[in-house]
Specification:
258 residues, mainly alpha
Amino acid sequence: MLSRTADHLYWMSRYTERAENLARLLDVTYQMSLVPKSLVAENQNWGAILALNSIEQAFFEHYDEVNAENVLRFMVLDPNNISSIYSCLRAARENAHAVRGTLTAETWESCNMTWLEVREQQFEPIMAAGIGQFFEWVKLRAAVIRGVTFGTMLQDEALSFIRLGGYLERADNTARILDVKFHVLDGEGARPDEAEGEEGASDFYRWGALLRSVSAFEVYRKVYRDAITPARVAELLMLRLDMPRSLHACLRGVVRTL
C-alpha cells in the first residue's frame, strides 16, 4: 500500500470520529447550560471546550467573549476553525475523495453525502430548530459511515489504517475530556451556602454530563449501580477493558491493529 493512501484513510477516519466526538461534547455542554447555575460557571464550561481542543487563541481572534452562542458558532459551522464540525467533515470527505478507488461505493457515498448536507447548513436555522437535533444528526452520520465502512470493505490493510485512525482519535478524545473536565469539576465545588442534598444533585448532573459526552452514563449505572464518584468515572474511562471508549479498550484496539 502506498503511504499516501494509508495517510488519507487514516485521517478520513480520524476526522469522522473527531466530528462525532465534538458533537457529543457540545450537545452535553449545551444541555447542561440549561440547568440554572452562575454565569461564571457556565462560561467556564464553554471555555473548557476551547481548552480541550487547544484553540483558545484562534477563538479570541474572532470573538471577544466566551459564551454559549460564540463557542457554538465557532465550533459548529465556522469554516475558519480547523476544529469545527464543519471543517472535520470537510476534511474527512477530502481525504475520502483522494482514495475513492480504495473505498467501496457505499463508504464514499456516505462520506460525500454527509459533507454535502452539512455544507448547506446555517447556524441561525440550526439554533432556531434546536441545535440538539443537529448534534444527533452528526452522531448518526458518523455511525452510518463507520458501519458502512466496516460492513462493506475488504478486511485488508486499508481497513486496518481506518481502524487505527478511529481508535487513536477516540482515545485522544477520552484523555482530553478527562484531563480538562476533571479540572473544571474539581474547581467548581459546592457553594458554602449549598445544602448537602443540593450538592449531591449538582455533582450527579456534572459527573453524569461527563459520562454522557462519551456515551458512558448507562454503562456506568450498569457496572457500578451506585452513586457517581470521580474515582469510578476515571476507572471506567481509563481502565475498563469492556468499555468501548476507555483508554484501555482503545489502545488494545491499536495494538491489535498494528
